[in-house]
């Protein structure tokens, strides 16, 4: 089953994302910010990355930008979790190499639907 | 799939309260002249996380409220809005309001709608003044309009799709798009190779292909647009309705109108999601939330956040313990006398590991005192504004760790002490300048470890306590006799007596002196004590001494006949044999003995606890243990001193009833029960 890296500085969101995905059989690794995520992504290849945008240490957009530079993550789907007001964030994220986004607030079903969309 | 969202609520509340604390301290640290971007960012992130979480978990009132805060903070963050004291004050108020909202939700009680709308109006007013306008609602409105004028359905669509070269590099696979389209209807895909360069020029990571897609079926144009939403800027795309044989557009039929409306409704647009998700969540989670809050009667229990490194240590220790255990069971299986050394070795290892494990487990309950201290910057900020005083607060030793229970119970007494310092201690700026002091008063909150205790000090450089005034007041209140001779220490301690207040003018800040005696009582129930040192005109220092933990105690076990008692190690001063000429019998007041020019009362343990098996009843035969509790010293007459050990305190009150002179009980290694002595109580008991 596909492996997913879930990045969010908020523990409740992280747990929700991780719990939902694990329930569908995905193997999920959690990271608390961009720096943590980058380290984890270098240690193991993930099939998909789901990241929050606003985070301390390294935000989601810089994370995506840096991950895209890595050969293993050239084509990996990377989704950002963004709020409805963040239209410019979406553009910024796309420019950094994000595959797409999931608009907050979302429920577990919406999350799964989107993940299935990119992972097939 | 249904997931019980209630399971994440507790974590959400915890992190939200932490976020609010972070916002509060961030706001208080903002320097109007030179705003630190990172501070604003931290505040913004906290608001943003609360908004995201509350939206996801269905607390719409919270997310709506936070949204306004977030907008304001976002403008500050982007430099579109100046950070003013007025705005900071409004934000601080909103932080309080949010805290109340979250507490209300957590307790399953109603949110105070009026207060919320008051704060929200204040925020919106602030938002309306200067800076950018509210962008978001306009945006949403526009989207709604767009949806409703969606052109009718067509029996099919023709899509010309030519991705830009770099589309693959954002992880967008055309196959995914085709797969989704094929879920909407019948899809015909025709690939166009014409863009392909020759083999030696080809860049394998670029996308050189383009496609013509025919999608047949009852499909909305917006549904197609949704699928291409992510790649909008990374491809050239044109959607046109399918033409019939005559080349005319095939028009949607009237019958289709009903499903069209339906389809629009089902669109997973942000607007629809916003309206649907929360109600859904509410329905499924409400009952669980209720049962949660019911089981959560005791406010001080609940969960605890533990540093992962502490857990790691714990797991390590358990590993060691398991190894020792298997080693011991190996020795025990075929035990021969020549393996005795091995056995002893194993046992001493077991002892060491058990002790280390115990220490690590106790460590889990330890929290940094910053949990209590962190609320004071705000308190001081608010109070000093209210009182018109200028006060700097310094926090020292915030990382000092102390038991969770102590942390929780310490909060209220400390608030009282700090308020007192601010209100009665620190003078008005003019008064300070006149006295040759700096205009700004200083209050220091400091915590540090000393021995097995934690010491917390509240230091101010205010006017200090006036001994004469204290004395006069105490006499006036009838608390002491007019001719009473008091040491300085005793004079200062008068403020801890019930019904005592020195402020010439009572204020609503620190009330009418009902507090200090309560503060002292609270500290004493925690097993600690409180002292005050003061110098007129220079300031006061109040020190609180508390045991590090309430669950474990370093004790000295003593023997009286067959009974074992535990004396808290910290209260023992010395142990000695006394001689006949030291003893002094006072008629009606029992026995005393002379120790370095001081007569101390002797408490005969075997008499107090009626131990009939006591071996030594003659004072010369046994030992006298000199103990001190709450400033009173006495000598305990016991048979013998045994070992020192850590004991786990079991409440006698909860399991039996309160017994004077005894603070609890513990179970010894051999399974017998030993009482833990309460020294002040014992002294009182012996005086009766």
Structure characterization notes:
The complex is a heterodimer of chains A (120) and B (688). Chain A has a single domain, classed as 3-Layer(aba) Sandwich (Rossmann fold). Helices cover 46% and strands 22% of the residues of chain A. Chain A has helices at 11-23, 34-43, 60-69, 87-96, 108-119, and strands spanning 3-7, 27-31, 48-52, 78-83, 100-104. Chain A has a 5-stranded parallel sheet with strand order 2-1-3-4-5, with helices on both faces. In chain A, helix 4 (87-96) links the parallel strand 4 (78-83) and strand 5. The longest helix of chain A has 13 residues, at 11-23. The termini of chain A are close together. The mean pLDDT of chain A is 88. Chain B is an alpha+beta fold. Chain B has a 6-stranded mixed sheet with strand order 14-18-19-17-16-15. A 5-stranded mixed sheet of chain B has the order 6-8-9-11-10. A 5-stranded mixed sheet of chain B has the order 20-12-13-22-21. In chain B, a hairpin with a 2-residue loop joins strand 18 and strand 19. In chain B, helix 1 (9-29) packs antiparallel against helix 2 (37-56) and helix 3 runs parallel beside helix 5 (113-128). The radius of gyration of chain B is 37 Å and the shape is flat. Chains A and B meet through helix 1, strand 4, helix 4, strand 5 and helix 5 of A and helix 1, helix 2, helix 3, helix 6 and helix 7 of B.
Number of domains of chain A: 1
Q: Strand-residue fraction of chain B?
A: 15-25%
Can you name the CATH architecture of the largest domain in chain B? 2-Layer Sandwich
Assembly state? heterodimer
Number of domains of chain B: 5
Distance between the termini of chain B: 71 Å
Number of distinct helices of chain B: 22
Question: Helical content of chain B, roughly?
Answer: 40-55%
For the secondary structure, the number of strands of chain A is 5
N to C succession of SSEs of chain A: EHEHEHEHEH
Low-confidence stretches of chain B: 132-153, 250-301, 510-514
Give the averaged pLDDT of chain B, no decimals: 78
Assign the CATH class of chain A.
Alpha Beta
Principal-axes geometry of chain A comes out as globular
Tell me the distance between the termini of chain A. 11 Å
């Amino acid at each position: 089953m596909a492996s997913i890296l879930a990045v969010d500085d908020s523990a409740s969101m992280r747990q929700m994302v991780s719990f939902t995905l694990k329930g569908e059989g995905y193997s999920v690794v959690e990271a608390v910010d961009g720096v943590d995520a980058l380290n984890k992504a270098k240690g193991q290849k993930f099939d998909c990355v789901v990241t929050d945008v606003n985070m301390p240490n390294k935000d989601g957009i810089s994370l995506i930008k840096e991950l895209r530079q890595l050969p293993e993550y050239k084509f990996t789907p990377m989704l950002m979790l963004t709020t409805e007001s963040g239209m410019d964030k979406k553009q910024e994220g796309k420019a950094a190499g994000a595959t797409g986004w999931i608009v907050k607030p979302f429920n577990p079903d919406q999350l799964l639907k989107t993940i299935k969309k990119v992972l097939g | 799939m249904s997931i019980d969202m209630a399971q994440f609520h507790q974590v959400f509340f915890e992190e939200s309260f932490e976020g609010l604390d972070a916002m509060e301290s961030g706001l208080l640290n903002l320097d109007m002249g030179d705003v630190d971007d990172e501070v604003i960012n931290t505040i913004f992130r906290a608001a943003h996380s609360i908004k995201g979480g509350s939206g996801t978990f269905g607390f719409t009132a919270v997310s709506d409220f936070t949204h306004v805060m977030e907008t304001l903070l976002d403008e500050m963050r982007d430099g579109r809005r100046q950070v003013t004291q007025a705005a900071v004050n409004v934000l601080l108020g909103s932080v309080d309001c949010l805290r109340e909202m979250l507490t209300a939700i957590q307790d399953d009680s109603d949110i105070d709608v009026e207060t919320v709308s008051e704060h929200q109006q204040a925020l919106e007013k602030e938002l309306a003044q200067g800076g950018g306008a509210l962008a978001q609602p306009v945006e949403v409105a526009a989207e709604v309009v767009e949806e409703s004028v969606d052109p009718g359905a067509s029996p099919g669509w023709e899509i010309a799709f030519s991705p830009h070269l770099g589309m693959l590099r954002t992880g967008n696979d055309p196959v995914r798009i085709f797969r989704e389209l094929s879920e909407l209807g019948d899809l015909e895909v025709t690939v166009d190779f014409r863009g392909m360069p020759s083999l030696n020029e080809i860049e394998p990571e670029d996308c050189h292909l383009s496609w013509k897609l025919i999608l047949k079926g009852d499909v909305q144009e917006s549904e197609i647009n949704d699928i291409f939403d992510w790649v909008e800027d990374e491809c050239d795309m044109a959607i046109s309705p399918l033409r019939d044989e005559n080349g005319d557009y095939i028009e949607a039929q009237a019958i289709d109108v009903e499903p069209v409306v339906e389809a629009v409704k089902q669109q997973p647009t942000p607007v629809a999601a916003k309206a649907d998700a929360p109600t859904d969540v509410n329905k499924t989670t409400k009952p669980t939330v209720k049962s949660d809050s019911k089981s959560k009667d005791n406010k001080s229990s609940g969960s605890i956040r533990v540093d992962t490194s502490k857990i790691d240590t714990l797991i390590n220790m358990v590993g060691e313990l398991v190894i020792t255990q298997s080693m011991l069971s190996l020795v025990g299986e075929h035990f021969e006398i020549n393996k005795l050394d091995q056995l002893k070795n194993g046992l001493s290892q077991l002892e060491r590991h058990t002790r280390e494990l115990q220490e690590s487990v106790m460590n889990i309950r330890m929290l940094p005192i910053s949990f209590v201290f962190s609320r004071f910057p705000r308190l001081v900020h608010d109070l000093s504004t209210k009182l018109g005083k200028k006060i700097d607060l310094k926090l020292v030793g915030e990382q000092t760790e102390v038991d969770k229970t102590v942390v929780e119970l310490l909060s209220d007494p400390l608030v009282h002490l700090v308020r007192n310092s601010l209100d009665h201690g620190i003078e008005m700026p003019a008064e300070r300048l006149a006295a040759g002091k700096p205009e700004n008063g200083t209050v220091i909150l400091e915590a540090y470890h000393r021995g097995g205790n934690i010491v917390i000090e509240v230091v101010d450089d205010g006017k200090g306590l006036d001994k004469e005034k204290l004395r006069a007041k105490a006499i006036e209140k009838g608390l002491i006799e007019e001719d009473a001779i008091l040491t300085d220490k005793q004079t200062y301690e008068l403020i801890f007596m019930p019904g005592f207040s020195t402020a010439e003018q009572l204020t609503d800040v620190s009330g009418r002196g009902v507090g200090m005696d309560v503060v002292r009582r609270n500290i004493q129930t925690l097993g600690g004590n409180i002292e005050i040192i003061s110098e007129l005109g220079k300031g006061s220092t109040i020190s609180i001494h508390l045991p590090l933990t309430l669950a474990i105690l370093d004790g000295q076990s003593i023997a009286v006949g067959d009974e074992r008692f535990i004396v808290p190690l910290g209260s023992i001063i010395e142990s000695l044999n006394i001689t006949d000429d030291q003893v002094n019998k006072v008629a009606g007041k029992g026995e005393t003995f002379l120790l370095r020019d001081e007569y101390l009362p002797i408490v005969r343990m075997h008499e107090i606890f009626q131990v009939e098996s006591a071996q030594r009843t003659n004072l010369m035969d046994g030992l006298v243990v000199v103990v001190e509790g709450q400033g009173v010293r006495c000598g305990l007459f016991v048979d013998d001193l045994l070992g020192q050990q850590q004991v786990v305190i079991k409440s006698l009150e909860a399991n039996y009833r309160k017994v004077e002179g005894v603070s609890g009980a513990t179970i010894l290694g051999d399974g017998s029960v030993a009482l833990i002595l309460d020294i002040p109580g014992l002294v009182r008991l012996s005086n009766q």
